[in-house]
Design brief:
The chain is of the alpha+beta class. β1, α5 and β2 form a beta-alpha-beta unit.
């Protein structure tokens, strides 16, 4: 019974910490900015804790663990429930996607093949060499806002249809192009490519990460009409700042809508984990979601998130 109590406490404490971080008014500090991405694990930890503490006859503590498990499961449950719609007009759909080219190291041929299946795409960490190579692989047929740059800060926005470039997100270190896309159905949709700086383990980096997510939030809030905001947000749905971005435009995360909100998109290589753990690549929109596919990109450390959206009422 003593062993059960020890195991119960050792699993309950981190569960409580994760819950506290998730619901805290700010996560812009160490270790919350990194650790809160593990919030869904709190449900498993709390369940184990409840069972162990009940077995040890620590009834009150077991009750606390059970409450934590229920709260966590309720919060996470929506991400596993499919709420997509059926498109009533196939001509009024748009295929969009958010990719990360891993400092321009992604396999150009494979990435271009995936992009050519889409109508609108944002490619983060796009270097000028990568943009030129993608053009040679057929992406020169697309309209583009080329904000490519060396390192991780460049992004290119591609559209199969005519675009009207609008001001990039302001007050950020990474380039975040924006454009109004006119679809064949006549609908105009503002597309924002989001890529805030990562929350590296220093307060300076965390302050920049917070500042840039707020800049994206403000751009979303100042935009009228239909929107798609997509890219590598360096944040999961458990980060308050990402939820604030969505709330600013009454947007939804397509992966959450499709019941794939727990599917990790990073890291696929060279990251802090040998397996992907964190869903940090997102497509946020106020359009209805028909379908979502999350797939690997050869040579990249991020998965590609694609969505079929409808610009007509479902």
């Amino acid at each position: 019974m003593r062993l059960l109590a020890v195991v119960g406490l050792l699993t309950l404490i981190p569960a409580l910490v994760l819950v506290g971080m998730r619901f805290a008014p700010s996560q812009s500090y160490l270790p919350a900015a990194q650790a809160v991405g593990l919030f869904p694990v709190a449900a498993l930890l709390a369940l184990v804790a409840a069972l162990c503490l009940a077995g040890a006859r620590w009834r009150w503590t077991a009750g606390v663990a059970a409450v934590v498990a229920v709260v966590t499961l309720v919060v996470v449950f929506e991400r596993t429930t499919d709420s997509t719609v059926t498109a009533t007009d196939s001509t009024a759909t748009v295929q969009v996607g958010a990719a990360n080219a891993y400092f321009g190291r992604a396999d150009v041929g494979a990435l271009a093949a995936q992009l050519r299946e889409l109508d609108v795409a944002c490619v983060a960490e796009a270097t000028p060499d990568l943009a030129a190579a993608l053009a040679r692989e057929g992406m020169d047929a697309y309209h583009a806002v080329d904000a490519s740059e060396g390192g991780a800060s460049g992004t290119v926005l591609y559209s199969r249809w005519p675009i009207r470039e609008v001001a990039q997100v302001e007050g950020v270190s990474f380039r975040m192009p924006r454009a109004v896309v006119t679809t064949p159905s006549g609908a105009e949709v503002t597309v924002t490519c989001a890529h805030p700086a990562p929350p590296n383990p220093s307060q300076r980096a965390l302050d920049l990460w917070s500042q840039e997510l707020r800049a994206v939030r403000d751009a979303v809030a100042d935009t009228d009409g239909a929107q798609i905001v997509m890219g590598d947000f360096n944040a999961t749905w458990d980060h308050r700042l990402l939820r604030e971005v969505a709330a600013a435009g009454d947007l939804r995360d397509v992966a959450v809508v499709a019941g794939q909100g727990l599917t990790p998109t990073w890291p696929l290589r060279d990251g802090p984990s040998p397996i992907p753990l964190f869903p940090i690549d997102h497509v946020l929109t106020d359009l209805d979601v028909v379908d979502v596919v999350i797939e690997d990109v050869a040579g990249s450390d991020h998965r590609l998130v694609t969505a079929t959206l409808t610009t007509a009422p479902a």
